[in-house]
């Protein structure tokens, strides 16, 4: 086996096995910290040994066994002065061997623990990317523009809280499940959005590493909970958004809005998969939740081969449903953008202006107003709105687009 | 596993009769379900005395060690197998006493 083959095998094993190894060890030793460290050591050992010894026939089992040994070594080191009894306990793995299928539930436990509502949102994101996603602390720190030491401390504190406050390592009870699932989805959506519309002047406008990781984790959760409508909805939403990624930023690094995108550049495989998931949810006849509605809206957009073929009345109808579920001003703003296509910019502008009180510091509010005012020929007021939007926008591609639009005004 | 559920308030002994009734009902539930360890309400922070004997002789200071607008007005100590159960009980406790509460595990 060539060096490249071994390296690929290690990368694949990391992608496929990391969460399984961490989950299995957390289950056995009841300690995230030990599980994380032992898993990292096991992968480091693989990097050392596989090139010489060859890739083992079952990499997952090899990694789990190696990580188990590393964990026991660590506990022995720490218990050196302790009585022999604790050591005796280690030799017997009190947990009965899990049937193969149940290992997947281990990963689900891990996800729910990392996304526990007693942890701050940013902490949940960091912990999920580390424990489930297998990203390193420097990688996570870079992704969120945080100092490495600060990110390390955040994760360490979270692990200490989980242990001290005894945040349970299990899938929540039926009564807690819907709220807890939506907590997990919120974490994944945040990761995806940060990748999709990255903030910060020094970063790429689209962070493919983050969108890809969010999709990978959503696929995992979808595989573990295939009947949950919102899980399916979020995955579909991400796929249909990701499908347009390459068409969304021009070669010169400028944001390309939906109506100007080269639809031939969209990823047809991702779109087909997203559409299939949306249809699957429609077929259940169960009332859709927020992510399912957002996915359905994106399905309508990606269904149109030309922007002029967009079924705007369908888009507005879906937004009407969404507003009933989620009366947030941002939802109303997006609805107004669709209304402009259906009923004209005048009607839309009136709806947008009603949101001023809530959205006065939100760049998209001013960008939307600027666009509507431009279409109504009110150049001066449009320019002022573009100015404000540019001031508030945090994404470099978006700033470039808004600046060009403003400078096109007569 | 035991947890301290602190009741946070900006007044002391301010529970209305209906709140007191709700607290009693919640306490009965804690006892019936085996979560009860101890509970009590506290007098105002202004009644506190801070004592420091680290220098050999006891030094008394009038008032609480930390002045704040909101403070510990009462507490429960509950027995719960994990934080999920503790949080669910604390959520019910907050509703019954109509105050904000904080959950903190014992070591």
UniProtKB/TrEMBL annotation, chain A:
Domain DUF6596, first and last residues per copy: 180-280
Single biological process term from Gene Ontology: DNA-templated transcription initiation
RNA polymerase sigma factor 70 region 4 type domain mapped to chain residues: 111-162
Pfam families reported in the protein's UniProt record: DUF6596, Sigma70_r2, Sigma70_r4_2
Signal peptide range: none
GO function term, MF aspect, one: DNA binding
Keywords: Sigma factor, Transcription, Transcription regulation
RNA polymerase sigma-70 region domain segment(s): 20-80
Family: Belongs to the sigma-70 factor family. ECF subfamily.
Designated name of the protein: RNA polymerase subunit sigma-24
Lineage summary: Bacteria, Bacillati, Actinomycetota, Actinomycetes, Micromonosporales
UniProtKB/TrEMBL annotation, chain B:
SUPFAM superfamilies reported for this sequence: Dimeric alpha+beta barrel
Start and end residues of each YCII-related domain: 1-92
InterPro entries: Dimeric_a/b-barrel, YCII
Pfam families: YCII
The organism's place on the tree of life at top rank: Bacteria
Family label: Belongs to the YciI family.
This protein's name: YCII-related domain-containing protein
């Amino acid at each position: 086996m060539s060096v490249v083959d071994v390296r690929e095998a290690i990368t694949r094993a990391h992608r496929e096995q990391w969460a399984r190894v961490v989950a299995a060890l957390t289950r056995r030793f009841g300690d995230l910290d030990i599980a994380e460290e032992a898993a990292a050591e096991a992968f480091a050992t693989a990097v050392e040994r596989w090139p010489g010894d060859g890739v083992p026939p079952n990499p997952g089992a090899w990694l789990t066994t190696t990580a188990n040994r590393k964990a026991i070594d660590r506990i022995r080191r720490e218990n050196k002065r302790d009585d022999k009894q604790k050591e005796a306990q280690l030799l017997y793995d009190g947990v009965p061997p899990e049937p193969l299928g149940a290992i997947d539930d281990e990963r689900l436990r891990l996800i729910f623990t990392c996304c526990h509502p007693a942890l701050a949102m940013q902490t949940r994101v960091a912990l999920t990317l580390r424990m489930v996603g297998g990203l390193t602390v420097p990688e996570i720190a870079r992704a969120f523009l945080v100092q490495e030491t600060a990110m390390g401390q955040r994760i360490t504190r979270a692990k200490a809280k989980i242990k001290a406050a005894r945040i349970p390592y299990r899938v929540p009870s039926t009564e807690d499940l819907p709220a807890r699932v939506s907590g997990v989805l919120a974490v994944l959506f945040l990761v995806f959005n940060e990748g999709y519309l990255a903030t910060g002047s020094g970063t790429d406008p689209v962070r493919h590493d983050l969108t890809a990781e969010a999709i990978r984790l959503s696929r995992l959760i979808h595989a573990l909970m295939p009947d949950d409508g919102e899980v399916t909805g979020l995955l579909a939403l991400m796929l249909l958004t990701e499908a347009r990624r390459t068409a969304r930023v021009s070669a010169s690094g400028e944001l390309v809005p939906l109506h100007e995108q080269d639809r031939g550049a969209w990823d047809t495989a991702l779109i087909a998969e997203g559409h299939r998931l949306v249809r699957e949810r429609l077929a259940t006849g169960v009332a859709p939740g927020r992510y399912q509605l957002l996915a359905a809206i994106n399905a309508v957009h990606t269904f149109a081969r030309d922007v002029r073929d967009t079924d705007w009345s369908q888009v507005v109808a879906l937004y009407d449903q969404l507003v009933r579920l989620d009366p947030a001003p941002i939802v109303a703003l997006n609805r107004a953008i669709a209304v402009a296509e259906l009923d004209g910019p005048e009607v839309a502008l009136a709806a947008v202006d009603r949101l001023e009180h809530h959205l006065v510091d939100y760049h998209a509010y001013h960008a939307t107003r600027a666009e509507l005012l431009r279409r109504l020929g009110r150049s001066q007021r449009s320019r002022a709105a573009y100015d404000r939007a540019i001031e508030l926008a945090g994404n470099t591609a978006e700033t470039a687009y808004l600046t060009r639009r403003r400078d096109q005004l007569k | 596993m035991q947890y301290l559920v602190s009741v946070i308030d900006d007044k002391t002994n301010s529970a209305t009769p209906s709140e007191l009734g709700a607290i009693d009902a919640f306490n009965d539930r804690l006892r019936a379900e085996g979560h009860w360890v101890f509970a009590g309400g506290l007098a105002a922070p202004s009644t506190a005395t801070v004592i420091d004997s680290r220098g050999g002789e006891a030094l008394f200071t009038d008032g609480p060690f930390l002045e704040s607008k909101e403070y510990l007005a009462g507490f429960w100590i509950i027995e719960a197998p994990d934080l999920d159960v503790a949080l669910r009980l604390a959520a019910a406790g907050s509703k019954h006493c109509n105050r904000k509460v904080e959950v903190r595990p014992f070591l």
